[in-house]
Amino acid sequence: MQTLERSSLNRKLTSMCLQAAASALLVVYVAFALATVTGERREERQELEALAAVLAQGGLDAVQFNDRRLATQLLAALEARRGLASAVLYDRKGQPFAAWHATGQDAADKVEALGGLDPDTVAAAADAGSRPWLPVLRVYRVLGAPLDADGRALPPVGAVMIESDLVPLWLDIARALGVMAVALAAALLTAFVLVRRLRRSISDPIGKLINAAQKVSASQNYTLRIAHNRNDELGVLIDSFNNMLAQIEGRGAALTHHRDELERQVGVRTEQLEKAKNAAEAASRAKSAFLATMSHEIRTPMNGVLGMTEMLLGTELTETQRNYTRLVKQSGEHLLVIINDILDFSKIEAGKLTVEYINFNLWDLLDDIHTVYTPQAEAKNIPLHFDIANDIPVAICGDPNRLRQIMANLLGNAVKFTDQGRILAKVRIASEDNQAVMLRFEVHDTGIGISRDARSRIFEAFSQADDSTTRKYGGTGLGLAISKQLVELMGGSIGVENALTQGSVFWFTVAFDKRRVDPDAPGDHQHTIDGLRVLLVDESETSRIGLERHLATWRVECDAAESADEALERLDEAARAGRPYDAAILDMELSHTSGLLLAAQIKSEAATRATRLVLLSPERLAADPVQRREAGVAYQLIKPARAADLFACLATPPRGQVAPAPRFMPPRPLHLDANRPRTRRVLLAEDNPVNIEVARAMLESLDLQVDCARNGEDALQAVRTNSYDAVLMDCQMPVMDGFAATAAIRREEREAGRGRVLPIIAITANALQGDREACLAAGMDDYLSKPFSQQEIAAVIGRWMALPLAATVHHDDEPPRLPPASVEVIQRDVINRVALDKIRALSRDRGDALVQKVIAAYVDDTPQQLRTLRSAIDGLDTGNVRRIAHTLKSASANVGAEALAALCKELEHLGRADTTEGADAILTDMEQEFQAVRHSLTAILEKET
Ligand code: ADP
């Protein structure tokens, strides 16, 4: 049954039909057999009955008259009938009277007697001879006597028995059944053939349906239909299937239509969004432009105010006038802080707040901040302490100006909101790995404190702890919001907690990269610690050699002592000889004593007390800050000390001996150098009359002759007719702006085949990120942001032309209060003077002349080299590119033009890699760099002659 269920539809149909037909035929066959058997037997009995009746008629006389011969003749006549086995005539007593048997007389003689002639005995004998399993059939008949005179029945006279042999009858029946079986088998075969034919009319359409369903599901093609011309149930099934496909197709078409409609709508919306986005971008650009303009508009007059007060303070004033002027300057600076805050806030709003990534000296910066805020705190009679962990790196990369801004805000607030107690700034390492260090800065105050619910608010823009703050302390509520943004931009976080007893603790963390100092590039450093005398106290020769190598590359004069005693001796000797050591680097682990003890000894001697002490210890906790302070150790570094940190320790004045707060130093009258060949002439292109006066005064105090142009066109005209050493170009001017004027000047230079000769320095009040890039891209060489101080303008101009020595004198008197970052960014040394010093050292007597000669040769030859390089690049001649770049690289390195040498190296690499891809851009950079190099070299030459 199970196999049938699993078999195919065709087999199922065949087997079902055959099973039905076979069952029907079987029933017919059985019925036929039964009917034949019973019919034949009944017929045989009737015939025997009839024969017995005939025999009884004839036998009656023979028995009555005891005529045996007649009886025997009568029985022998039965031989003619086929199939009779025997016949017997019985007399009145039931004894055989005559008998006949088909097989012979013997058998006839053995006939048994009948028990009697009463009906029961005869019936019993007949019954016994007619049992169905017997191969014979017996029939008895009583021979009746005639009725008596009264019509009463007389007792029987005798009886007759006829026996028939049934075997031939059975054989006939078997034959008939055999024929019947053959006929039925033929009928079954015919049915099978017919079923095979007819089943196709059912299985074929079902097969078609299956195929169609599979095709549709595979191809998703709902247009398919099955053709047919039947009107039975299968026809209905196929029609339903076709209908279903039609419905799906219809639904698919509707969906496609909806999708198309949706796409169209999305397209329309996207277009609208695009328009909205463009509008928003335009608005944002407009906002940025507005910011730039506003910044310019506000900072320009501030430049006038601050510049003029600075100039005014440099003139002869009465004490009262000086006080007033100082107040004006302070207010102006305060106003500038607020303006900068608002600008920063606008930048946050416009998503344009960015941070820089530059190298700086963290300790310098912290000292600087300490220096600036100490007077403010002192003015309120509050001590301000800096507690800086000794293990913080000194030389790091990040944005010093923004760090200063955040610290300034927190310290400013601390000073503002504290009336008594103390302020403490702490710096600790929060986490550190090989590349980066996360610093945690804290500012503790004992001021008014902040309520718990105000704490979450104060970092939002324009929010203050409570309304009375503004009335009592002033402020905009922007500082902390800006600080928060800055700290987050620098990968840190900011928060506030309550101090234990009184006041609050503001903290923030900032991640910085650690700076790697390349000992082979001492150019950055030598001007600051060059010539320092240092004593090295270390018992290990390996450590001494390593340290000596560093110190030598920084041009530090270094002696070594192998023990504490030797160190004390040497220090004493040097002090006695009037050449005390500036610093001593002490190893913590010395035999019989310790670096700390040695330090205390050195500091206890008046002669050696001035020597700055740097302690090198194997671990951070070797000496705690109190011990170090008591022993007079300025810095402790962990061994092996980072070169950058060691350098910074030697270069930074020890904490606690902070320089006085910056005071304005009026520009000194300049002394013209008698040997100077001519007065330097600069063009100042600026439209604002106050700014013109400020800048003119500053430039003239640098001993420069100043011409003024009120707009870009005037400037262009002036450059055409006069020869200038430099142009200071304001970016935003009427008629023609600074960018257009610069572009025109550069174009004319190119047309005249002169190359880029005139240094143009942009002056702009736009304090937005990207201004510097925009100016340099417009063809300007440098960048000066308004408001600028005299030192700043001197520093920038000094990079592009020789300034009289007197003009730089202020640097010695008064350290410029430039943030270290600006110093690094703006004062990029085009020339590493060490290289020139090396050339000079080649000849004892004629060193200077040699330097001049080398520089002249370099300046004369390089333009030709650059031109050849250009044609080699144009002609894809990589071999020549490599060769010339290589030659120029060494020539540039010889004169200390390191940046140019690095560019040459890049180009040389390209040449070696057999490609000129990107070479154009490098060459353009090289040409620009060469202009700067040429100016610097010329300036150096002129300074020296
Ligand atoms: P401003 O100081 O210009 O109001 P800030 O954003 O710097 O703006 O500070 C927001 C507010 O946070 C201040 O107005 C003040 O209420 C609160 N605040 C900041 N620093 C301190 C502090 N050290 N002690 C108490 N309150 C402070």
TrEMBL record:
Residues 293-514 form the Histidine kinase domain. It is found in: Cell membrane. At low DSF concentrations, interacts with RpfF. It comes from the Bacteria. It comes from Massilia cellulosiltytica. The modification 4-aspartylphosphate is found at residues 587, 730. The chain crosses the membrane at residues 173-195. Keywords: ATP-binding, Cell membrane, Kinase, Membrane, Nucleotide-binding, Phosphoprotein, Signal, Transferase, Transmembrane, Transmembrane helix, Two-component regulatory system, Virulence. This is Sensory/regulatory protein RpfC. Residues 847-940 form the HPt domain.
